[in-house]
Amino acid sequence: VRNLIHPSAFFRKADWERAGGYNSNMVYGWEDWDLWLSLIALGAGVRRISGTHFYQRDNASAALDTYRRSVMRLQVILNHRDLYGRAVFEPMADTVPFAELFADTGKGFGEGQSALKVLEDFDGVKEMEFDLKPFKGAKALRFDPLNGCAIIKLKRIELWTADGKVIRVQDCATNGFDGKGALFFPTDDPQVHLNIDPRLKEVVKAVFRVEYAATGKEAARLCMGALIDRADVPLGARSAASRIMNFIRKKK
């Protein structure tokens, strides 16, 4: 759960390339820690050379603050779920609320193709910007507004292109249901799916404006109440998964 390898470590260039280099979603730093884990996942070993061979000047102003440390620690765990396992990831995910954006660049949605935003509170409307330049050629996006049950009002979705155009997205699919002007997600994995028009020039940024009406246990209680009151909520053949798949197929 913390980096034990010094930044003065040596590694072969071929191994660095095999691991994919530094992960661009480590936006605040600690990309070396993420790289060590990628190398270990590929079977690389680590050896410590005894003695003092390196001096480093610490700069207090360069240290990550509490918020950025939380974001990067969580991003490392998300990038390497297979290494950490459920025993580490789930307790951390339960204590740190975050939103996450996945990009499909042709291989589906995966943790290596995602970026997250830690949510410090749920007050007011949250505007979350995600840099899409690391996900060049993305064909579709999946926005997870929270790592838990939620009721949200999705105020706006915008895609920004490299030539300065701003496209407001209207057509998307979710694994929730509409009710009282909000989206109800009776699941701990809420999802909003949107496709990127292939006619658009390079999309470099996605912006989501979200109001969190309820989260956690309160959201779960309200969702269950809404499900009981509404007979038209699709629970059988028209499940959330089937609606999303139909949306994706429609766009192909």
What does this structure look like?
- The chain has 252 residues and is α+β, with helices and mostly antiparallel strands.
- Helix content is 29%, strand content 26%.
- The strands form 2 sheets. Strands 3, 5, 6, 8, 9 and 11 form a 6-stranded antiparallel β-sheet that branches. A 5-stranded antiparallel β-sheet has the order 2-1-4-10-7.
- The chain is globular.
- Helix fraction? 25-40%
* Low-pLDDT residue intervals, each spanning 5 or more residues: 235-241
* Helix and strand pattern: HHHHEEEEEEEEEEEHH
The major beta sheet can be summarized as: 6 strands, antiparallel
**Distance N terminus to C terminus?**
41 Å
Mean pLDDT: 81
Secondary structure tally: strands? 11
Q: What is the molecular shape? A: globular
Strand content: 25-35%
What is the count of helical runs? Answer: 6
Structural class category: alpha+beta
Structural Rg: 20 Å
